[in-house]
Amino acid sequence: MLSYDNLYQLLDNTRLKRWLNFLPQDTHAAIFESNNGNLQTWLDAMEKLPDVEPSSFSLNSDTIKIGEESDLNAEQKANLIAALEIFKPWRKGPFDFFGTYIDSEWQSDWKWNRIKDHLSPLKNRLVLDVGCGNGYHSARIAAEGAQLALGIDPGLKFIMQHKVARKYLPKETPFHILPFPLEGLPTGIKNLNFDTLLCMGVLYHRKSPIEHLYQLKYYMKEGSELLLETLVVDGPLGYSLVPDDRYAKMTNVWFLPSILTLEQWMKRCGFKNIRLVDTNQTSAQEQHPTPWATPESLEHFLDPKDKNKTVEGHPAPLRASIIAEL
Q1: pTM of the entire predicted model
Q2: Domain span at residue 201?
């Protein structure tokens, strides 16, 4: 159920082939030696998923859709829903599994639709999606014809959510997620570069944003493209907000730079052709509580008297998307 054999076969025909010297062992350890107390519960839920062939699937629609309701009988549908509920909260989506619609916390299609036309064509590219969650955007990348849409995220629940979709997709679908953070990927081996990298919603969680930019750069080559999306604040060149404690109730937020500061960071790290392609103040419609997600979401993280401020008094979440090259 958690096999990565299809990914390993795909990698064998790419310039990432040398990963196969250690990737199977490292992946197995990241999952089965994680000491995650929920792992067995998740594995049991995976085993209860209906073993059926979906009559259709779509990765290139706003809702990632796998199967039709008519593909399942009543017992199979009940087992499917019970398994899907084990994997709550569903942060990214939306998904539709055999007629069961999963309204995720984030309307991830909104973000995708803001950035997709700014990316170079993804057809036949090796693409790395850093901090991908359950892989919603990786799936959309695969639908664009990428040779490989590889997501990475250390969250094992996200891996399980991905494996639900992976169970019902054709084995040749080039859409996979590995259970690693960026710093968990291999270094010291040449030609581990990707054509396109996406890093969305990660940079502000890093204590050293400069180090993180250099880590992204390591997996690029001349002509590679980076789409970086992160929280920013208004301010002059050199300004960055460092919250005293929490930001929008998050404890792991470190640096929120001004756009000019972010561009300067990227320039100092060696990126070129840096261009701002989108800014967006997150709305309570794009990030919202649902029965499939969490009882609290953005509306609970903002000042009830001023939606332009967080509950801590900081500027409300403003996200910038920047594309750059090496």
Answers
A1: 0.96
A2: 5-325
